[in-house]
Please model this.
Amino acid sequence: MISVGIVGATGYTGVELLRLLSAHEGVDVKVVTSNSEKGKTVTDVFPSLRSTIDLIFVEHESEQLNSCDLIFFATPHAIAMNYVPKLLEHDCKIIDLSADFRIKDVGIWEKWYQVKHVCPELLQTAVYGLPELNRAEIKRASLIANPGCYPTAITLALLPALKQGLINPQDIIADAKSGVSGAGRKAALASQFSEVAESFKAYSASGHRHLPEIIQSLNLVQQNNETNLSFIPHLVPMNRGMFATIYVKPTDQNTVLQKHYVDFYADEPFVDVMPERAHPDTRSVKGSNTCRIAIHPGESESQPTVILSVIDNLVKGAAGQAIQNMNLMFGLDEGTALSASGLIP
Amino acid sequence: MISVGIVGATGYTGVELLRLLSAHEGVDVKVVTSNSEKGKTVTDVFPSLRSTIDLIFVEHESEQLNSCDLIFFATPHAIAMNYVPKLLEHDCKIIDLSADFRIKDVGIWEKWYQVKHVCPELLQTAVYGLPELNRAEIKRASLIANPGCYPTAITLALLPALKQGLINPQDIIADAKSGVSGAGRKAALASQFSEVAESFKAYSASGHRHLPEIIQSLNLVQQNNETNLSFIPHLVPMNRGMFATIYVKPTDQNTVLQKHYVDFYADEPFVDVMPERAHPDTRSVKGSNTCRIAIHPGESESQPTVILSVIDNLVKGAAGQAIQNMNLMFGLDEGTALSASGLIP
Amino acid sequence: MISVGIVGATGYTGVELLRLLSAHEGVDVKVVTSNSEKGKTVTDVFPSLRSTIDLIFVEHESEQLNSCDLIFFATPHAIAMNYVPKLLEHDCKIIDLSADFRIKDVGIWEKWYQVKHVCPELLQTAVYGLPELNRAEIKRASLIANPGCYPTAITLALLPALKQGLINPQDIIADAKSGVSGAGRKAALASQFSEVAESFKAYSASGHRHLPEIIQSLNLVQQNNETNLSFIPHLVPMNRGMFATIYVKPTDQNTVLQKHYVDFYADEPFVDVMPERAHPDTRSVKGSNTCRIAIHPGESESQPTVILSVIDNLVKGAAGQAIQNMNLMFGLDEGTALSASGLIP
Amino acid sequence: MISVGIVGATGYTGVELLRLLSAHEGVDVKVVTSNSEKGKTVTDVFPSLRSTIDLIFVEHESEQLNSCDLIFFATPHAIAMNYVPKLLEHDCKIIDLSADFRIKDVGIWEKWYQVKHVCPELLQTAVYGLPELNRAEIKRASLIANPGCYPTAITLALLPALKQGLINPQDIIADAKSGVSGAGRKAALASQFSEVAESFKAYSASGHRHLPEIIQSLNLVQQNNETNLSFIPHLVPMNRGMFATIYVKPTDQNTVLQKHYVDFYADEPFVDVMPERAHPDTRSVKGSNTCRIAIHPGESESQPTVILSVIDNLVKGAAGQAIQNMNLMFGLDEGTALSASGLIP
Model:
């Protein structure tokens, strides 16, 4: 039985971890922290977990965390880095769902997140927790940097093509769309229901923090680190779901990407390559850990190939992937507690 | 291993049965039927089930059904009654999620459903599948009439009070609200997205088909069959969820309903009596088989007590309750495959 | 040309006033205030008004307000009362869309709003701005207390019956539902998109601030001040719209309420009595100043009659009604700038 | 006073025409047709127009149309072409909101719409009704082909750049998103609320009927007819609104597109070029005839410039633009009845 702590368990990734872990027979959630809600029970804050979870929020600083086998950080960025070094000394394993350990180059991280990193030495130790990219390292890791939602959807859609040199890495456009839960659970005018419902918009069009993370992964799988990606995120009036429409230029017009993708992901439990020219919708993965990908070859030589990729931003894009990483780190079946199908409708 | 058939598996209760049963280790779904989609695979119609279900729709008349241990009917009303008598002869057990066997009085049924019943003799054999009311009979039944969604939410909210004579049965108002999936999965102008989104309305205010079903259950638990209920359904622009706001008049102002409800439902796995004056929301039971109830006593003697009741109309209001009944009929743990918490957000 | 100021113009009622007044040929909006956004242009905050409004927010304390003919307060409660006395001395007319002057009894007001009133003497001078109730007084008023949204929808639905003694005033239930814009435009966790979308709930079930306001109006039109009303508000996942389902007991079962309502409202420009047993939806009044009412007589003598009432909470429930009052106060055609039909879909 | 007929007035563009024309003082709507609803009043079908429109639907074949000055066709494609030739003989002017007269090349039209055109000779006479492109011809036209919604949003976003040769016409990507009302008002499974809400998807990724229409306009404004455009439409769970994210490659990295766009559209009443790097949202034009455009230059030389364009698909993308064309054809002020601001929220 793995004893687990969750730091910052009052956000959407936190409650999703609690929901998924409550069905995981190999896990015992022992500690949940929240500096804003400490003293309340989990079910005061989340009645959906009544009769499932019987815990009281303690503060992030609680020493109870020291004795956990594994600690998930479901906090905003720039929090985990303050706690992780000490917890590692207590032999806790760590999966950080925030951005603190995702970028290897501390200068790039500090530029995008506008704060000084307090333990840059851990950036090299940390393993980027995308199992389809780093499964072997994840199994041996003590500190996992769990990928962002946009990076997960976009990287999985490009991995087979870039790794095998099938597309031009210097001309990629990723037009991505996210449900509102991606903005987190906090009081903010911009994500009020009446600011978002019955509307659609792009945001951070001049640069989103997930861009360097995507670039880092895409560069990693090529010879020459030469990714040139244009990435525009948009906000969709729905709770969950992420959709990426990716425009790429095949290096050889005769290559059938479909076949390469099917082969590449043949043994992956959580990547579904749909039939060529399929139209995945985000609801097909709602509440599920699956990423679905569909390829639409260009109608003519001059047209880009379009790759469509969908995930649930809170599952494969956050809590589900974190549990997938936990399963790998502790030698469990990778899919434990992650087999749910999408909730339709 | 129970071999299961599902008739009419292309609707929302059908796909919900498939989703829930795919996680049930004691069940093997063998046959799925659809007269409109026969020949297609389940995953052609529901990509959310890719890699989970590998079946092809056959027609309702398929003889493959005869060898199933249990058959769910997830069809509109007036279909199951044409197939059930013959299937019972083949020793299949039946759980009908439609209205065909819910009303004991064939005259009332025919008045509300405007069609002649083809096997009225089965109305007496059929057991109304509300476990909190009929658990013992359900265990012995061959034919279950699975309750409607409104009847489930409203009956569970009133059962303890009526059974113990704590409220006036002749002055009850049930103002109920349903998500749009309750209208079924079919092409209809009235449930088009742009007819429903960003709007709210009452419907069938002069009489809804679930009314006689509710009355029948509420009469059953009293001495004098004297329920007088006003029931107005409304349509909420959301997929799932049902909410009932029920106004009752306690017979004795000093009675604390809260205590009676907590005691009455103490051992029920799927009824959650929240603290007095709580505000349940439908999302707390999204995808879950739980009914949550909260009681708001009137501020003064002349004020009604208000009982709030929420369910997921597709789970406790349909497919989940059907599986709960199946578990009872086959001697399994009643909660098998039904332990999921609500999906937040 | 009426010169107008708007205090607190960054909320939803503020921007709705700006939208509607920009089409009013007899009005010149001169001053808009916002303590949080002062210095910004209106179109920085509301791009929807680009090329329509060319003003900069100043602070509430601005002396520019003194020279306005009319000032709308679109602020939360307990703000207007601090400015109104001085502005009245400058001969400004005032329409307060907040609750500060709605309740005649200062004790009741202070109990519900939990703050000391700073100018209780104005409570008697203020005219409650429901034209269908107080048209003559509104024309002569200097200070209008613009009604709340729930009180507007519910009072209009009950006025003809109570005024003429057609129903029992001691047994009324108002089950009301509101879109989320009713919660105002401010950062609050409870009205985040992902806290509200795909869910439905009751709130303030043990007492909402609009209750004493409704009671005050309903008592006013009867002989004996004996209203006994149960009022439960609910939150609907949509931006705009308010729906009230009202259960009443006719004093004489032979009375046809329909006829009385049609006659009572025959000359009202903004109340539409629909055919008996119609089902109004909120979208039919989206962006419009109309209140639609439909009556459903009980099926039997023991059943209550149900009255359905819909408004747009931001128009007839706030900004539109305020402009209707302004038109009356300044001798304009009552419907000026208020003739828009509902936006479908 | 222009006497107007509307053929097919029961769809969303039909009811939007009725809503907008009811506020147009120079227009008298005399005839509305619907083959499915003939005999009903307009307000039976659209209660939002109660007290505004007092007409009864007649059939499309009605001779009453012959005496109208102007007839709008708000029908699906392949209907208008059967009536237009005869109506032109009666000296009616025609604005067809469907696709029947949009494509000059009958072969291309027949390929995409899969039906034989019955009056191809009119394709040359018809004027494509995008005022920003064809204002002079529109003023003189008898037959207007009113543009599609996607073509309006995308063409307006590209016109200044392509006309002046500022971008590479052979490398354009238009990732476009539409609200569900674009699918029309008809019973269809794919646009049921519960098939669309809480989901997002691309559709027609291998070719959408609006593609040849866009190409035709974009070719028209260049020297060499060499547009190469990749166009992927997506469905957003909202009623109204269209968003295009367009990726272009400037021919000269030093060109400031912003300045060219501001100048190009300086006198256009319905195109709003926002400040550089602004983020338009669709709600800012809800119910309004405005197209808002914002330009995001690439961060580096190798990055595309991104142009964002928003319209209300039912207004500037359909009924509003049709009225703008009518105003031009009849010598009225171009903006008559089209001055409304966006409805927020």
User: Anything to note?
Assistant: The first strand of chain D starts at residue 2 and ends at 7. The interface with chain B takes residues 12, 179-181, 183, 185-189, 191-198, 237-239 of chain D (CB under 8 Å). The radius of gyration of chain D is 20 Å.
